[in-house]
Amino acid sequence: MKVKKIIQNDSFVLKLPAGSVIHLKDGTQIPLNEIPKDAQELWESGYYGFALKKGCEPLFEHYTKARLQKLIDIRKPLGYDDEMKILNTLLKNVDKPAKEKTTTEKPV
Questions:
Q1: Contact 16, 32 (CB under 8 A)
Q2: What number is the average pLDDT over the span 56-80?
Q3: Number of separate domains in the chain
């Protein structure tokens, strides 16, 4: 049985097979043997090949409610339920002081 290699970093997980290639509009090709440095930019543009994972919250500390809502609108059609839970929690907490914020992680 072939084991699927999971490619991820602190914030994103690859939703495509390792070795897949992103073809950008300008003709650039990015092989996905790791999460690329511009993953957040690609993700925010609606690219389906990456999804958020628990622990990504620091990326969005300074995002406004409007920006988070726009990301939810862009990402929702992709159907990544875990990602929507993270984004909705971030949206709910955007105006709360740091110690009042809830997290998507369960206590240990």
A1: yes
A2: 95
A3: 1
- Determine if the pTM surpasses 0.90: no
Q: Find tokens 């602190």 and name the residue.
A: 10
36 belongs to a structural domain: yes
The answer to whether position 35 is within a domain reads yes
Is 37 a member of any domain?
yes
Sign of CA dihedral 37, 57, 52, 40: negative
Query: In this model, does residue 71 exceed pLDDT 80?
Result: yes
Whether residue 80 lies inside any domain: the answer is yes
Q: What are phi and psi of 41, to 5 degrees?
A: -65, -45
